[in-house]
């Protein structure tokens, strides 16, 4: 027993600095701003005065800039955001949205058949849980270290990278206070081509799961009902993509999406605007095969303002 005491002391002395470093790292990681934490903060500050709220995934995040609205708008879309989280964000903020007149719900090629929790980006569920304080769309195992540790959430490799900058990092540096993130073409622009378009559509086809449909439609209906109880006009919008994308889509699915959205809009007296193949957009308006660049977002946002926000 007497031999064990010095060993325990040495062990404590060895572990104490390591524990302090790990705790310091966890605290610093929690302070790093990202698109989730910044969008939550901006939405909380502005939702009381907002007249237009935009929901959706990356095509809306990068394609709709409320700066060009005649009404005060805020973009709450995010990368790979599903209808489940559109619904949860709306539920979280709706009682504070005293001046909201329009709710723009963007639907893309994959939207009705996509959920985060059974996709390649299931890790995003935990980002909504930790930074938005939302209930994740699927239960996570108690053994998953990402439930408790930001080091595990960000991964040790990225944590080490952030540590070399003394955690002076912003993971969404170009995010505007209105929620829009511009995509600016540079020499390193992703190549827009039929081959790259096929790859992109193939990726989206891989996340489309028929079993998700009954859930996503239920989420959409709940969003609509929430808005209707507040007398908010609901508009469903399909953003534009370049021809290298839509020409490689499953045409039957494209038609089914359009028919379904038309049916929903007719039933609930909702306006639907399909800009998927809009000829007003050319290659110069796109950052890649399915995202608008800064110029394209200005054009699209101005069109929304003229044609929708009347």
Structure report:
With 310 residues, the chain is α/β, with parallel strands linked by helices. It has a single domain (32-307), classed as Rossmann fold. It is 47% helix and 7% strand. The chain has 12 helices and 5 strands. The chain has helices at 4-31, 35-46, 58-61, 83-93, 124-132, 150-154, 156-164, 194-207, 213-229, 243-246, 251-268, 294-307; strands at 52-55, 73-75, 102-106, 233-238, 271-274. Strands 2-1-3-4-5 form a 5-stranded parallel β-sheet. Strand 1 (52-55), helix 3 (58-61) and strand 2 form a beta-alpha-beta unit. Helix 4 (83-93) packs parallel to helix 9.
Give the topology.
Blueprint lengths: L3 H28 L3 H12 L5 E4 L2 H4 L11 E3 L7 H11 L8 E5 L17 H9 L17 H5 L1 H9 L29 H14 L5 H17 L3 E6 L4 H4 L4 H18 L2 E4 L19 H14 L3
Parallel strand pairs: 1-2, 1-3, 3-4, 4-5
């Amino acid at each position: 027993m007497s031999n064990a005491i010095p060993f325990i002391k040495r062990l404590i002395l060895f572990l104490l600095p390591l524990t302090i470093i790990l705790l310091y790292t966890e605290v610093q990681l929690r302070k790093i701003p990202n698109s989730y934490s910044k969008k939550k903060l901006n939405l909380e500050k502005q939702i009381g005065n907002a007249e237009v709220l935009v929901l959706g995934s990356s095509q809306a995040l990068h394609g709709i800039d409320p700066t060009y609205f005649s009404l005060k708008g805020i973009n709450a879309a995010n990368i790979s955001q599903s209808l489940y989280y559109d619904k949860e964000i709306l539920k979280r903020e709706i009682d504070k949205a005293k001046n909201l007149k329009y709710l723009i719900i963007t639907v893309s090629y994959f939207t009705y058949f996509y959920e985060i929790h059974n996709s390649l980006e299931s890790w995003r569920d935990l980002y909504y849980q930790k930074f938005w304080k939302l209930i994740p769309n699927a239960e996570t195992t108690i053994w998953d270290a990402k439930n408790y540790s930001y080091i595990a959430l960000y991964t040790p490799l990225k944590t080490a990278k952030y540590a070399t900058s003394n955690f002076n990092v912003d993971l969404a540096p170009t995010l505007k206070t209105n929620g829009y993130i511009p995509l600016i073409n540079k020499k390193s622009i992703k190549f827009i081509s039929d081959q790259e378009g096929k790859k992109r559509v193939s990726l989206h086809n891989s996340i489309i799961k028929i079993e998700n449909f009954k859930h996503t439609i239920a989420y959409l209906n709940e969003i609509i009902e929430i808005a209707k109880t507040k007398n908010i006009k609901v508009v469903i919008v399909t953003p534009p993509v370049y021809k290298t994308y839509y020409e490689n889509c499953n045409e039957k699915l494209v038609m089914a999406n359009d028919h379904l959205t038309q049916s929903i809009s007719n039933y609930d007296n909702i306006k639907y605007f399909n800009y998927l193949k809009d000829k007003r957009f050319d290659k110069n308006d796109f950052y890649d095969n399915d995202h608008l660049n800064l110029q394209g977002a200005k054009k699209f946002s101005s069109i929304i303002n003229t044609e929708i926000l009347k």
